[in-house]
Amino acid sequence: MRCWDWFGDRSLIVIDIALACCALEVESAAEAIAVSDVRPDDRVAVVVSGTVTDTVLPIVTNILGQVPDARVVSFGACASAGGPYWDSYAVTKGIGQVIDVDLFVPGCPPTPTALREALATLRAGALTPGARAEQRMGTT
Questions:
Q1: Is the distance from CB of 22 to CB of 114 less than 8 angstroms?
Q2: Which of 52, 66, 84, 112 qualifies as a FRET site for 104, CA 20 to 30 Å off?
Q3: Phi then psi dihedrals of residue 126, to 5 deg
């Protein structure tokens, strides 16, 4: 799990819960961004990238419980709906079934640009604080 000051001005701290191949796209999007720490007054976005299995789910919810006001981005087909593994007994059929998700970024894998656009949407405040809006970001 890594944290970045995504825009370099502490306007949005991004935590990636890297679970599978979509994490490589997150790393690519964050290539030149400084790794950061999380402070209590930070605005935080948590990106769930990759396949969430039923075994890993408690760890994901525990991490999210540590940043209760965080915005959640479901990044990729696996995090959003189970991806090609949707019919496995061990795969959660989308993180949105268990936690409130603010943005779904589709794709297998989604592009780094799609993640940048999703995070810019969160930074701009296009989603009302405190209200969960299931907004789907298109890939470019």
A1: no
A2: 66
A3: -65, -15
Say what angle helices 112-124 and 22-29 make with each other, to 10 degrees: 60
Q: What is the reported pTM?
A: 0.87
Q: Tens of pLDDT along 86-102?
A: 899 999 999 999 999 99
From the number of C-beta atoms within 10 Å of its C-beta (0-12, 13-18, 19+), residue 115 rates as buried
* Dihedral over Cα of 131, 83, 138, 65: its sign: positive
Q: How far apart are the first and last CA of the chain?
A: 26
Please tell me whether residue 19 adopts helix, strand or coil conformation.
Answer: coil
| DSSP of 24-90 | HHHHHHTTTSPB----TT--EEEEEES--BTTTHHHHHHHHHHSTT-EEEEESHHHHH-GGGTTSTT
Strand partners, 14: 4, 45
Q: Residue 32 corresponds to which tokens in the numbers above?
A: 């030149």
Phi, psi of 84 (to 5 degrees): -70, -10
Sheet containing 103-105, strands listed edge to edge, beginning at the edge strand earlier in sequence: 2-5, 13-18, 44-49, 71-75, 103-105, 135-136
DSSP E strand boundaries for 76-140: 103-105, 135-136
